[in-house]
Amino acid sequence: MRLSQFFLPTLKETPSEAQIVSHRLMLRAGMVRQLTSGIYSWLPLGYRVLKKIEQIVREEQDAVGCNELLMPTIQPAELWQESGRYDDYGLEMLRITDRHDRQMLFGPTNEEAITDIFRKDVRSYKQLPQLLYHIQWKFRDEIRPRFGVMRGREFLMKDAYSFDIDYESSRHAYNKMFLAYCRTFTRLGVKAIPMVADTGPIGGDLSHEFIILADTGESEVFCDQKWLAKDLSGKGVDLNDRTALENWVQGTLVDYAATEEKHDPANSPISGDDLIATRGIEVGHIFHFGTKYSEPMGATVLGPDGKEVPVMMGSYGIGVSRLVGALIEASHDENGIIWPDAVAPYKVGLINLRTGDDECDAACEDAYAKLSNAGIEVLYDDRDIRAGGKFADMDLIGLPWQIVIGPKGLKNGVVELKNRRTGEKTEVTFEAALNQIS
Ligand code: ATP
Ligand code: MG
Ligand code: MG
Ligand code: MG
After folding, report:
1. How far is the CA of 291 from the centre of ligand 3 (A)?
2. Which one of 50, 257, 259, 319 is CB 3.0 to 4.6 Å from 223, fit for a cystine?
3. In this structure, which ligand is nearest to the CA of 284?
């Protein structure tokens, strides 16, 4: 992509409405623009990152055998009256009336909708287990939308749902999702710690929130410092071996980590220097809730003994759009964003130090073609502006690599290769730079 043909409205000044660094940087880097409170448009650069995160989330859901579908954003009120949540959900639910005076709502989550799909077509335990997910926009009329996309009103969520015949199988589904989440966040280049979370009035011990530690997070969290060095990549775990998977999950969870609701300072198993008490961002939440929806909504199957039983369910969310902000909170410096490779909108930024100079232009065109041909995503700053502005914008948008081509270097047959994360700059031939990036 040539910057001269790209829509990248970067800002020099810090927008006054943004209170935290990720919000400031997303506005300054031209990634999003607010349409109205808590509702954002994703501009081309931001949308590329959102799609990359979404794709990694998708691949790891697929890898544990979860089937993707797509449910609508608008739901009928009746379904929520059946589950009993229509009144409980309160003001966070955006309620809509259609032209026939029917009550509708913009889905804040999809337990009711998926249970309805399930009950209409699944009759027997032989059709179980089922694991289904979608990646869809949600609306919650948050009382205090803030921090940009981190607490929006409209936001993109991956939500998955499991259906099983008994507790043991349901727990296996939970463990599969636990593994998928560990793998997802590892691939995204961030540490998200699974913490024991409140299960609300339903009870049970099976709920974990995946939390990225950050001072700007909205949750108060407590965990053993051992988590900081823990490998959560989930490599080599056999997800079809129930016992092995259960052991891996329990082994991972041996070290203490709890959200505020579950942390009791008087009875904490760890204290002193071992205990990290800090804040964090909830980027995922997995939850086993048994028959909470299947019972009132009549989602039953015939068991092996011929008796009808309500299915055991769980739900599993990831805040896809929140992650864009959360990754920036976790990775930036005073000059801008530093993208983890896996989600960077482009891998390399190519800077032409003197647009209009024949030799420079030709060298840049050649480099641009070679990078593109090598399958490397490149953003070429071919704009006719001063070099300082190009450097500042490139640092701001945080691409992992920069290749700078100018008249001086060309005389010596070299370009400058800069690593955005380390700041390290080297003068090398273009071929050597290409080699290192590939
Ligand atoms: P929070 O505690 O931040 O309000 P939640 O517990 O209400 O989140 P869940 O119902 O668990 O959210 O939804 C699953 C995921 O969706 C959350 O873990 C979070 O990453 C994301 N999410 C929830 N609300 C928002 C929001 N207003 N804006 C962006 N992402 C959100
Ligand atoms: Mg909430
Ligand atoms: Mg929460
Ligand atoms: Mg939650």
Report:
1. 21
2. 257
3. 1
Convert the pLDDT of each residue in 196-233 to its tens digit.
999 877 666 699 999 999 999 999 999 999 999 999 99
Instruction: Assess whether pLDDT exceeds 90 at residue 370.
Output: yes
Compute the average pLDDT of residues 182-205.
Answer: 89
Residue ID of nearest Cα to ligand 1 atom 26: 151
What is the overall mean pLDDT for the chain? 97
DSSP, res 293 = T
Q: How far apart are CA 194 and CA 207, in angstroms?
A: 9
What pLDDT digit, counting tens, does each position of 68-85 carry? Answer: 999 999 999 999 999 999
- Rounded to whole angstroms, the Cα distance separating 318 from 284 reads 4
Choose the residue to mutate in 40, 157, 323 for probing ligand 1, maximizing ligand atoms within 8 Å of C-beta.
Answer: 157
Measured CA to CA, the distance from residue 327 to residue 283 in angstroms comes to 10
Q: For residues 85 and 154, what is the distance between their CA atoms, to the nearest angstrom? A: 20
Amino acid at 53: I
CB under 6 Å to ligand 1: residues? 109, 140, 142, 151-152, 155, 157, 282-285, 317, 319, 321-322
In this prediction, residue 200 carries a pLDDT of: 76
In 291-367, DSSP assigns E strands to 300-302, 308-310, 312-319, 332-333, 336-337, 348-352
